[in-house]
Structures are given as C-alpha cells and as structure tokens.
Amino acid sequence: MSYKHLKSADRIVIDTLLGESRDYAYIARRLGVNKSTIGREISRNAGKRRLKHPKVVPRPAILDYDGRKRRSSGLTKDKYQAIADYNEALAVAAKANKYYYAGAAGKKAKTRRKTANQLRVRLVHGSASFLEQYVLDNLTYDQWSPEQIAGRLTEYLDERISPQTIYSYIYTSPEKKQLVKHLRQGGNKYRRKHGTIARVRNNRNNMSSIHDRDPVVETRTRLNDYEGDTVVGLDTKDRLLTYVDRTSGECLIGLVLGFNAVKIANKTSRLAKTSGSVMGTITYDRGIEFAEYEAIAKQTNSNIYFADAYSSWQRGTNENLNGLLRQYFPKRSDFKDLTQKQVTEVQDKLNNRPRKRYNYRTPIEQRAYLKSSARVALRV
Fold this sequence. Notes:
This protein is of the alpha/beta class. 46% of the residues lie in helices and 9% in strands. It contains 16 helices and seven strands. The strands form two sheets. It has a five-stranded mixed β-sheet. It is elongated, with a radius of gyration of 35 Å.
C-alpha cells in the first residue's frame, strides 16, 4: 500500500470503530492502510494509555427476571429504573475506558508537524549564515558528500538537515558549476532520471522484440546468432558478461567491474574483436545493463532483439551457460579478486568441454563440424 497521511475523516472512523471494540486490522482494512499505520496513529495521538483491564459494568439481575406474573407489584417500574441506571453506568464506563479522541488526535498531529517544520534548517543562498558556511567549507575544502555533512551536523551540532536540502542548495546556486565539481561524480543529481533506466523505459517501444527475429534463428540452423546476459557477483555492480552461440554453444565471457550500460557495450565490442567472432544477432533480456544496445549494434554490426519480460526460457542456451559458470564462480563469489585472464581460462575450458547434445563434440569442434559439413548457414 502507498503511504498517505491520515485525515480528519480517517481519525473519526478510527474513533468510532474503537468505540465498537474493533481491532487494528479491521480498522486498517476499512481505511485502506497498513495495520501498523493505525498502531502508530494511536500510540502517537491517543489521549492516554489504553487500559489493560477496562472497567466492566455488571448487568443487573432484575433485567433478566420475567415479571409478567407479578403485575401491579411495582416490579415493572423498578425494572425500567434499573435499565436507565444501567445505560447511564455504561456511558460513564465507556467514557472512562476511552483513550482515543479524533479531535484531540488531530490537534496532536498538527502540533507535531508544526514542530518538525520548525526544526528543519533551511539553506539560503548568500545568507552568510553559519550553516551555509559550514556546508560550503566542508564541501569545497574537504570534499565531504552532502550525506556526510548532514550526518555530521546532526551527530555533533544537533542541527537537522536533509542531504537532499544540500543537493538542492548546490543545484540552485549561482555557483553551481564550481560546486558540483566537488561531488563524488561531479555530475548532475538528476543523472539517473536521464540515464539508463529512464532511457530503457522510454525506448521500450522501440526495442526489437524476439518475435521480430528471423525464424531461422529459432531453428538453430545458422551460426553467429548469440544470446547475451550477465552473471552477478557478491557486489551486484560486478558482473560477468556472457554470450553464447545458439547453434554451436561456443561462448564469450568478459569481466566488468562496477558495471554500467556503457561498460557493457565496450566490453562486448572488445570480446568480439579479440575473439574474431561475428555477432550476427544478439538476444538479450530487458535488463537495464543493455540500455546501450544501439551502441552495441553499431560496434558489432549486429541486430539486437529482446526477449519478453519474465521469459528466461526464450534464452535457454544462455541460461544453461550461466549455470555452468557457477561451477567456477559460485553464488556470492567476489569478482573483485578476478582478472580477465582467469575468466578467459574458464571460457576456454567451457569451449573445449564435450557436450552430449553435440554427440560429445566440444563447441569449437561443433562449429568446425557444422562448417565443414555445410549443415548450417553462416551469418556474416
């Protein structure tokens, strides 16, 4: 469920349902919020603590007595009086037991929000305040990140400020060009919005689907039709880039540390050049690591296609290769200790491993066999 502030009408509902002895889960369902939201609201804004043993008014025995056979005895009058006294006692007990009031809860919430806003520290350009000078000094001289500056202010100076406030100050400053140079990446804080994730989403309609691929690729009667993917290491930013020929099973494996879409594209180009492989078509999944697919297509002179979402079976050859790699690089392996030379040694082992599906020929032998017997076409 998405987060939202409770309104006055919501608090009235909570007040009413608590009066009906409804539990938090029921109230949460009625309001369409999480159960913990109700718990926090009551713990923060209730007038007093909830009684562990609420006062219970005993029901008078006379109310259960059938006095129809004792007419004119005055019992009926006594019974009506007992009912009135009982209802009044119930009202008094309910008031004593009540611990949450919608009006009082709303006032507490407004007071708390007002106090929180007053505690927020604001950065103003050119104010020459202590806060502005502190931020500028630590940013420009010590190259602290906005998060480090904000944390230091909170921990040692008891000044609460959000790192986002510092970022906003930097990117709205007249000295923006000089200030951003002191940030870790020296770039724009909105880089991700214009980066690979957004580009993949915006260009998703322009991606060539696997269903647009030449039907001959599906028949595996042509060489140089590849499937590509990455294998994740202990640090998810470190990947093994894997390619495999659908027909021969010959693979290419590259090491990419601190990966991004540009590094993936460049590594693909180097793998193709160093191995002398011709990559006619490449089929990927829809991961953001392949956002620079247009650059890959240009550098390798290949046609790029994308499988359907959550359809790894459409790239089964590559998934099989990634499974074989786990023999050498188990899950949670730290790729930072690897070199491309070590990865290439594993690549050579896999390319020289006999495969049952090729009558125990190795992928390299299978490629040579297919070429010599003219059993497949070559995609060049």
